[in-house]
Every structure is written in C-alpha cells, then in structure tokens.
Amino acid sequence: MSRFGKTLMASAISLAMASCASARADTPQPINASGNAPAVAADTAVPIEKATPAWAHNDPKMNAFIDNLIAQMTLQEKIGQLTLLTSDWESTGPTMRDSYKQDIAAGRVGAIFNAYTAKYTRELQQAAVEGTRLKIPLLFGYDVIHGHRTIFPISLGEAASWDMAAVEKSARVSAEEASAEGIHWTFSPMVDVSRDPRWGRISEGAGEDVYLGSKVAVARVHGYQGTDLAATDTVLATTKHYAAYGAAQAGRDYNTVDISERTLRDVYLPPFKATVDAGVATIMTSFNEYDGIPASGSKYLLTDVLRDQWGFDGFVVTDYTSINEMVPHGYSKDLAQAGEQAINAGVDMDMQGAVFMENLEKSVKEGRVSQATVDRAVRRVLEMKYRLGLFDDPYRYSNEAREKATLYKPEFLEAARDVARKSMVLLKNENNALPLTASAKSIALIGPLGDSKTDMIGSWSAAGDRQTRPITVLQGLKERAPKGTTVAYAKGASYEFADAGKTDGFAEALALASKSDVIIAAMGEKWDMTGEAASRTSLDLPGNQQALLEQLVATGKPVILLLMSGRPNTVGWADQHVAAILEAWYPGTMAGKAVADVLFGDYNPSGKLPMTFPRTVGQVPLYYDQKNTGRPIELGEPGAKYVSRYLNTPNTPLYRFGYGLSYTSFSYSPVTLSAPSMAANGAITASATITNTGKRAGEEVVQLYVRDLVGSVTRPVQELKGFEKIMLKPGESRNVSFTLRPADLAFTRADMSHGWEPGEFQLWIAPSSGAKASTPVTFTVTE
Ligand code: BGC
C-alpha cells in the first residue's frame, strides 16, 4: 500500500504565457489601425523575459567548479545525476528498483525522494559521499504540499483565503520543517488550473482562475525558496504539472488533454510563467499529452516555451515514471526511445522510471543523444546542488538537534490554525444562524467527519500524522463551547460509496438531534476521494449522508452543514433547506480549533470560493470567465428555446467563483475611474469605497473584473484582474484602488501573438464574480 492507500500494479507502467500573460507593461505589442494585431510570427511577438532569480546570476566560481567536476565524470556518473529514485518508503506508484541503496553507493543515482528525517537522510548521504568516486552529494526531494509535519489546509482551501501572506506563511513553515528533516526540494506548488471538479487533483491546486492561481503560485514559491537557496531553512520549489494536466478529459485522472494552443497559453500556462519569473528552481512535467505528444516528450513545452521563450534556467524533472508511460501512450516504441525523446525534448531528470539509468548510455554511444545534451542536463542539476551549499557540506540539512527544535513548534501550529480559519467559506447563513449564540445550549454534532482525525489533513499530506495529532471537530467544539453548553456526537451516516442506502446509524443520530438546540452536520468526502487518482462522476455527498441530512432537517431543528471536502460538491438541496453552510475543506492538523473559531464567531469568516460550485455535475465544466456565445441565454425570454441553455437546469452555478459571506455585511460605492481612456504607455486607476455596514469587524476580498467587449478573437464575459483583502471595523469605510495598464489586458490574439488590443472595456469592482455590485464603467484603450 502506498501512503495514499492505493496500490498500483507494476504492469500499469511498461507549452508564452498567455504567452506571457504578464507581458510586460513596457513592451506592449503593436496593433494596426483596424484594431487587430499585425500578422507576425508568434515567436517574434512573444517577448523573451529571461528569468533572473536571485540565484541565477552568473557565478564564475560555481561555473569553474562545475566545469571541473563535469570534466572528471564518466558518462555513467553523469546519468546517475539525472536519475531520481524513491526510497522504499511509500510512494504513488511502483517501486522500480528495490536496490536504491546499492545504486547510491555505485553513483547510479543523484537524487532520492520519499526519504526524510535528519538521521535517514544523513545515512543515505553518507553512502553517496563516502561511497562514490566523486563524492557528489544526493538531493532529497519530497511532496511537501500543504505542510510537512504541521499540516495546513489543503491547497484549494488555502487559495480560498485569497490571502497571499497566509499562503506564503504556510509554504514558509513547510520549508522550515521539511529542511530540518533533511529535505532540499519540495514537489510544490501544483499550479494546474482546472475547471472540472470531477478531477480529484483540483484539491491540490488553486482552483479555476488564471489570475488568482498565478498569485497563489508565486506566494508559494517565495515561501519555500525565500531569498536565499543556500539558507538551510529554504528548499527548492517545483512548479507542476507542466502542462495542462487540469484539462484531463471528463475529469478522469491521467486522461487525454485536447485543448487549443490559445487556451493553453491564456489559461493553463500563466501560473507556470509566473513562477518562472519568480525564480522557481525546478519544473515537473505532467502525465498527460498535449496536442498528441506526452508532456515529458514535448520539445514545444520543455524547450520552445519554457527555455527559449521564458528563459527558465533551473532543471526539469519528470513526473513519476512518465517517461516509461510514453510507451503505453503510443508515442515511443520502447523505453530506450522514450528516454531519447524525453532528454532531447528538454527533460533533465527522470523520476523513478530508471529509463535514463538503463538506456541512456547506449543512446549516447550510438549517437541518438548528444554528449552536450547530457552535459547540459547534468550542469543544471549540479548547479542546484551547488546553490544549496551541498558541495560545502552535504549534511547541512540533516541536523537532528535542529529537527527536534523545529517540528510542530507552537507558532507553526498557531499559523496552521490561522490559515485554516482564513480558508473557510461561509456559503449560506440564513437569519444569522451562525455564529452560534449562547441560546444554543445543546449542540448535536452529527456526521462521519465530526470526530475523524484521519480526514482532517486531507490528501497529499505525506509526512502528516493522520492518527494522533489532528484535532477533531468534536474536540475543538467541546474545548471552546461556553460553560453550560453541551456538545454531543453521533456519527449517524457514512461517506463510503458502498454505504449508500443503509440507515444503520440514523436512529441514534435522530435521537440526539431531537433533544438538541442546534445540529451541526459534519459531512462531505473521505480524505482520499480527492487528490491523485480520485476522480468522481458525481459531486453529491457520498454514502448515505444526504439521506440523513434530509431527516435531520425534517426534525425542524436548525441545521448547519459543515462541509469538508477537496472539491466543489453539489449541495443544492442543502442550500434550499439548511440554515447555514460552511465550506471548511480539510483544515489540517488544527482542524477542530479552526472550525470552532469560526462557528463560535471568534473569527469572522473571510474566505471566497476559488472555484465555481455547480448545481449539478452535468453543468461541468462551469467557470466564471466563460464566453458569451452567439446565443446567450439573456437574449431570450425566460424559457426561450433557441438560446444556449439547458432544458432542466439554470445556466447559473449554485455558488459563484469569488463568492463567500461574512458575519458582517459590506456595501460598495460606484466605481470611479482616473480617466476615461488610456494609451499604449498609460495606466488607469479604478476605485471604489467599501463600507462595513454590519455590526462586526470583518475582512472582505474586494475583486476587480474586466470585460473586453470586442477582440480579434472572442473574449470572456469577465476576467479577474485584481483583488485586495481588507479588514474593516463596523461602520468603517476604505477606498480600494486598482491600477491597470494595457499589458494587463493582454491575451493570445488572432495571429497567436501575445498582447493587448485597443477598444472598449467594461470594469467593475465587486464582492464576487458576476455580482456587479456597482454599475460597470466603460473605458477605452487607444493605440
Ligand atoms: C504525482 C506528483 C508527485 C509525484 C511524487 C506523482 O504520482 O503526480 O504530483 O510529486 O508522484 O510523489
């Protein structure tokens, strides 16, 4: 069993940005008089923005050191540096080589993952440094995704905070704990935009939006890498999975991706580009194909876009055995050819497939891979080892005293609790059912997630303690409940698919409910129903939870649905019938405390959805920045036939992207613009005054949306272009301003060049997508 509770049979294994969505303000692209971009080749139109992270300055000392080292290396030793193997700890796929320790001693492997603790990494490092001819230290990688030991909310939850300082803090704490356990390198951030909640891996990313996703991605890279890779409390970050993995057809994991190059550039690539600009050290390929070519063999993605257009100068690692998988993809006739295609396309390091290890020497000797290609990849890997300071002291991250002093520091746990409550989204709150008041003397906590430790830390919490550390909701509520208030628990229902139709626990739960003042239904998904290889065709509450929820509502007592899951669920019935809904995701080690903070009102919820919640799975993919179509539903009378709509379901979602309530309320003034138009090198500032009109202090995520009315290609009905999270006391007002430049309005134009186009735009400042709190204002961009 792997740490994700699944086994994978060994037989299963046999792309700027918006081309530069951040096209720079100072390099606007030329436009002709008709408003269309002139026909220029994409390559020349895409500005090359060389990444210049702090560590990437030309370092003559490092270069001399690495030149000297490479000159001494045999081809086999070089290939070793391009090989990453798992230790025999649990992993997400087949362990291809049980003999990794012998491989280390023989210099056949340069990097190890799934091994940590100061002691164990020291032991393995010693084998590499003392056992091999050139004494090249190992690099230790690991999936440190939303915390290492102290687990923070799942990544989608963190994105729901819209609080970049909180996101960065989580990554910072992760890096401190992981590096204290000998880890040099995390396989995070996962920046795959996804519009499909059927896909389990949406829980690992930042949701459906390009802009929010890019900000979150950069915050994570900053948190992990800090400003100095040589500091012993920073780790190399990995942006993954490159690219378009989130567009897997039908939401089925590992499935085919077939999207246009324009969509690739405008939707899926920008977060990758943003992290390259932020200096991310490594990029991980994805399992899927793009335009018929598996990502690990895509020269277009790995060289043309990543290196030549973006100037990335870290190294590229594959995903788990994804070179091997080029054979079943039907792209390579055998592993030898797969390895050649991968390295020639731009892969530097082979994760777990042992393809380079077993085939590359022959490929080089027979001339299908050049020595220079191998040397370039080796150099990129050695540079990172050098930057981490491993050639000075290979054991500098494996320090048991530091490890002991670092893990689970009280301040880390407090940070995890804080980020957890910031991530929660209040979806409904009829008649101020929340926060709980003193009149709720007896609280019935019901549901499979009410007293579960295992589920609280979600998936991809690899080194997280699932059994003892997590604070359950029951514990949290009991500890916080005011004197004289009782909290009693009955599981009542099950989230297991197989339990649908059963009613075993219902009687006990209903008996408890009937003698209580308020019911908290802690329902949702089991922790491993999202994450890798966890796709679903239904987004409903699994098992028999919905049936129990309906019976709880039938008691007439107020029911609060505490929803815990890693994806948007279809909770339309609940939205109609329960008093309040709080989306708590999987909140992490401090789950119960953070839930209690919100339910009792010690913290006023401030999260907003990073993903649209559909009414039914049949609406998927449903996302806020859709196109208008030629027959938008608004054109017809209600119920009109020949418009773009469903016969049986409204087009609108249940809850919009960017939506989330507070225990207070906010009003938005009309928007004012600094000028009615801006020129090529100009800027425009939009402002609105936000007022806390309620009785509690609270935070509001103020969002800026823009619509480009006419383009050389059709444009979305709205795009997020800015946000700011502000804290307001009751009655307090604040003016929030956003400055836009033409480059912020850039996209992939008809001729595939990247840039903006002159014309008319609408803009509004609002509490969520689609909610035009104030009348949109119009501005123009002139040449
Ligand atoms: C996942 C990656 C992960 C890798 C190493 C793969 O199955 O797709 O996200 O980093 O395993 O554990």
UniProtKB/TrEMBL annotation:
It catalyses: Hydrolysis of terminal, non-reducing beta-D-glucosyl residues with release of beta-D-glucose. Its EC number is 3.2.1.21. GO terms for molecular function: beta-glucosidase activity. It comes from the Bacteria. Keywords: Glycosidase, Hydrolase, Periplasm, Signal. InterPro entries: Cellulose_Degrad_GH3, Fn3-like, GH, Glyco_hydro_3_AS, Glyco_hydro_3_C, Glyco_hydro_3_C_sf, Glyco_hydro_3_N, Glyco_hydro_3_N_sf. Residues 700-769 form the Fibronectin type III-like domain. It is found in: Periplasm. GO terms for cellular component: periplasmic space. Residues 1-25 form the signal peptide. One of its GO terms (biological process) is glucan catabolic process. Pfam families: Fn3-like (PF14310), Glyco_hydro_3 (PF00933), Glyco_hydro_3_C (PF01915). SUPFAM superfamilies: (Trans)glycosidases, Beta-D-glucan exohydrolase, C-terminal domain. PANTHER family: LYSOSOMAL BETA GLUCOSIDASE, PERIPLASMIC BETA-GLUCOSIDASE-RELATED. Belongs to the glycosyl hydrolase 3 family. NCBIfam families: PRK15098.1. This is Periplasmic beta-glucosidase.
